[in-house]
Amino acid sequence: MPAKYPKRTLKKNLNREKLAIAAVITFSRNGYPNTPLQEVADHAGVHVQTLYKQFKNKDELAIAAAELATRDVRALFEANFSTKSTFEIWRGWIESSVSYLTNLGLGENKKQALHTPSSLMHDNYLLAINASYEDILTEYLSKDFDMDVKTERLPRLVACMLWSGNEAAMKRCAGLDTSNDVLNDSKAVIAESIAVVDDAEMIFSSYMKYQRT
Q1: What's the Cα-to-Cα distance from 136 to each of 26, 40, 116, 178, rounded to whole Å?
Q2: Which of 47, 118, 200, 211 is deepest in the core (most CB within 10 A)?
Q3: Total structural domains in the chain?
Q4: Chunked mean pLDDT (size 10), the chain, 213 residues
Q5: Does residue 164 contact residue 191 with C-beta atoms inside 8 Å?
Q6: This prediction's pTM
Q7: Can you give the pLDDT at residue 5?
């Protein structure tokens, strides 16, 4: 039987969820450093003072947003791993998430950040996401490779490649390596992002051991 909460508690929980979702969207579009909390509150449809009642500061909001995004990715792996490899699941997630984000449109500050030495610099949301996604990928790659991460470093190394490869794909699409900015071409961005997963799978396919029914 589901737990019963007073109306005030239900509203508080709903506002917290709405703010975390709004933070995922606005941080992804603009970059964490360039997203004022007022914009997050506006996107969630609540007063900024409601935001401050839920979160002490921007860092706390970033952690909540990252936890929300991580929860969805973990659920995706749990639901599909019996029939699909880590590479297949990650490829599908990359395609859907990149498509969604490019349709949202990247802000100019986010685009400029892709040309900096590290587009993760000062972005606490992406840093939290990075750590969480890396752990999930490591966990499932270790199953695919039949390796114990306590003694084998390969699962985490490949996990780092897959996650960092997504950022590398965005940098290529921004023209950092190619001098050809295609960030506004969603099909080109998706194709480049998926190609990174394809390259990693081709390199490490011989390590796959997990048998699927």
Answers
A1: 24, 27, 27, 31
A2: 200
A3: 1
A4: 58 86 89 91 95 94 92 95 97 86 66 60 78 94 97 97 85 82 83 92 96 82
A5: no
A6: 0.82
A7: 52
- Cα–Cα distance for residue pair 76/92, rounded to 1 Å: 10
**N-to-C CA span, the chain:** 35
Question: What are 60's two structure tokens?
Answer: 């706390």
Q: What is the rounded distance in angstroms from the CA atom of residue 67 to the CA atom of residue 171?
A: 25
Query: What's 132's domain CATH number?
Result: 1.10.357.10
Residue 212 included in any domain: no
Determine, yes or no, domain membership for 40: yes
Residue 38 inside a domain? The answer is: yes
Q: In terms of Cα–Cα distance, which of 22, 16, 29, 45 is closest to 123? A: 29
Q: Which residue has the tokens 């794909």?
A: 169
Q: Which residues contact 200 (CB under 8 A, 6 or more apart)?
A: 87, 158, 161, 162, 165
